[in-house]
Amino acid sequence: MQDFPDTHALTAAYDDIWLLGGVRTPFADYTSVLSGISPTDLGIHAARAVLRNSGVPATDVGTVVAGNVAQSSFDAYYLPRHIGLYAGVPLGVPALLVHRLCGTGFETILTAADQISLGRAKLALCVGTESMSRNPLAAYTHRAGFKMGQVEFGDFLWEATLDTASQTRMGETAENLAKRYGIRREEVDRFAAQSFARALAAWNGGFYADEVEPVSAQTWTLEGYRSRGIKLPRKVERFERDEHVRQSSFEVLQTLRPAFAEDGVQTAGNSSAVVDGAAAALVASGDYVRAHGLRPLARIVGGASVGVPPELMGIGPVPAMRALVARARLDLSRIERFEINEAFGAQYLAVEKALELDRTRVNVNGGAIAIGHPLAASGIRLTVTAARELRRTSGEFAISSACAGGGQGIAILLQCAV
C-alpha cells in the first residue's frame, strides 16, 4: 500500500483552459518596506499589473477570485471585491474569496478554471495577497468584558501556526517528517543554502525581471467612490527586488539555533521566510485566447487537492502530485520542472525522498526559504514561475505544489503553450 494514499483526492482535468500570464510584487521581509500596506492594496497593485502586462482589458474580466489567509485590515471582508473594482473590472462582475491556507493561491487558479469550464466566465482575474506583518494582536473573548487579571491578547501570527487538533505547530510537523525520513540538520542547511544561491543567481541573471512588478507610491481613483493607493515609507521611492534573497552560506546557516525542538533540524534560516507580498494571474478559456490572438504562458491541464495527517502536514504534495499525474495518465518522470513550496527545509526533503525527485528539476530559481512564503500569494507565484521556466527551457510539463496547514496538499499540472 502506498504511504499517504491519494484515494480521497479531489481532482480535475481541463481540456482548453489557459494561464495567460502572471506577475507578483517583490516580497518584503516581515515588518519592513511593505508592512504599512494593506493586503487589499498589494492585491490591487498586482491585479492592475497583470492586466497591463498581458494587454487584456479589465472590462473583459468575467470573474474575480482572490485569496487572503489572515485578515489584516479592518476592511478585509471586502478584499476580493475591492481588488476587482480598483483594478478596473466592471462594477457588475462578482468577486469571490477562497481559502485553503498555504494552498490558497493554487485554489484561486483552480476555482477560476472550474468557473470557466462551467461556462460561467471566459476570463478570470486571480489574486493572492498577504501581509504577514499586519497580522493582529487579537482577543476573541472580550466583547462582553473580562475578569480582573484575565486579559488574553495573543499574537495571531504565532498562535495561528498551532494546529489545535494535533497540538503541533507547523514547524513541528517538519520535525516529525525529519524523524520519519531520517533527515539530518546538515541536509536541511545544505538545501537551504542551495535555495538562497539559486534565487540569487536567478535574480542576477534576469529571470525574475518579467515576473516581478516593482512597487512605488500611487493612487487609484474610482468614480463615485473613495480613492485608494500605496504609500511607501519615507526615503523609499521604489521597491523592486525580493528583500530576503541574499548570500546565505551553509557555514552561516549551521550557526543558527533550532527553532521548534532542542535537537531539531529546523531553524529560522532553513524555514520559509516570513514576508509580505501579492501575486496575480489571468486564466482564460481557449475560445477567448483564440478570439484575441493571445499567446498564453501554459495550458492548465488539471489540479488535485488531498488530505494528510495534520501532524505530517508537509507531506501533502506527495499524494497530491500522485493523484494529479494519475488523472492525467502521466508519470512523474514526464515532468520536466517542479515548483514545490519550501515551507520548511525538512518538509521539502521529505517530499523529495518520498517521490524520488531529481532536484535538478525542482525549484531551479530558488524557493520560499530564500524568496519567502506570503501565504495566499505563494500558489500563484509558484504556478507562474513554473510556467515561465517551462517556456524558458521549452519543456512540456511542469507541476506546482504545496502543503497546507491542517494536513493538506495541492498541485497544478501545466503544459507548455505551443
Outline the structure in words.
The chain is of the alpha+beta class and 418 residues long. The protein has a domain at 16-135 and 210-242 and 272-291: Peroxisomal Thiolase, Chain A, domain 1. Helices cover 31% and strands 23% of the residues. Strands 1, 2, 3, 4, 5, 6, 15, 16, 17, 18 and 19 form an 11-stranded mixed β-sheet that branches. A two-stranded antiparallel sheet has the order 7-8. A hairpin with a 2-residue loop joins strand 12 (218-222) and strand 13. The longest helix is centred in the middle third of the chain and has 20 residues, at 185-204. The protein is globular and about 55 Å long. The chain starts with 9 loop residues before the first strand and ends with a strand.
Rough outline: globular
CATH architecture of the domain at 16-135 and 210-242 and 272-291: 3-Layer(aba) Sandwich
Q: Strand portion, in percent?
A: 15-25%
For the record, the CATH class of the domain at 16-135 and 210-242 and 272-291 is Alpha Beta
How helical, in percent, are the residues?
25-40%
Q: Can you count the helices? A: 12
The low-confidence runs, each spanning 5 or more residues with pLDDT under 50, are: none
How confident is the prediction overall: mean pLDDT? Answer: 96
Task: Tell me about the largest β-sheet.
Answer: 11 strands, mixed
The CATH homologous superfamily name of the domain at 16-135 and 210-242 and 272-291 equals: Thiolase/Chalcone synthase
Radius of gyration: 20 Å
What is the structural class? alpha+beta
Number of strands: 19
Amino-to-carboxy terminus distance: 38 Å
Instruction: Indicate the CATH topology of the domain at 16-135 and 210-242 and 272-291.
Output: Peroxisomal Thiolase, Chain A, domain 1
